[in-house]
Amino acid sequence: MTEGTATSPWVVIREDGNGNRYRVGRYATRAEAQKAADTLAAGGHQQMYWVERVPPNGGPVVP
């Protein structure tokens, strides 16, 4: 497990109107990640945002 994964296991994922997905931030707690996702979603754009936990082995997040 990498240090970043250990200290920031929650990620915010963004999906744009074309179906492309991106990690937009890493957070230490689910609450922090959800707050960021909610703030981004309130922007009124067509992108979707959600929160996922990085797998314990540090593998890729697959939405």
Global structural class: alpha+beta
Query: What distance separates the N and C termini?
Result: 20 Å
- Envelope shape: flat
Show unreliable segments: 1-5
Largest sheet: 3 strands, antiparallel
Number of continuous helical runs: 2
Give average pLDDT, whole number: 84
Helix percent reads: 25-40%
Q: Using the CA coordinates, give the radius of gyration.
A: 12 Å
State the strand order across the main sheet.
2-1-3
Strand content: 25-35%
Order of helices and strands: HEEHE
Query: How many strand segments?
Result: 3
Characterization of the model:
By secondary structure, this protein is α+β, with helices and mostly antiparallel strands. 27% of the residues lie in helices and 30% in strands. It is built from 2 helices and 3 strands, in the order αββαβ. The protein has helices at residues 3-7, 30-41, and strands at residues 10-15, 21-27, 48-53. It has a 3-stranded antiparallel sheet, covered by helices on one side.
Q: Layout of SSEs?
A:
Blueprint: H1 3-7, E1 10-15, E2 21-27, H2 30-41, E3 48-53
Antiparallel strand pairs: 1-2, 1-3
TL;DR of this structure?
With 63 residues, the chain is of the alpha+beta class. The protein is 27% helix and 30% strand. The protein has a 3-stranded antiparallel β-sheet, with helices on one face.
Please give a handful of descriptors for the protein shown.
2 helices, alpha+beta, three-stranded antiparallel beta sheet, single chain, 63 residues
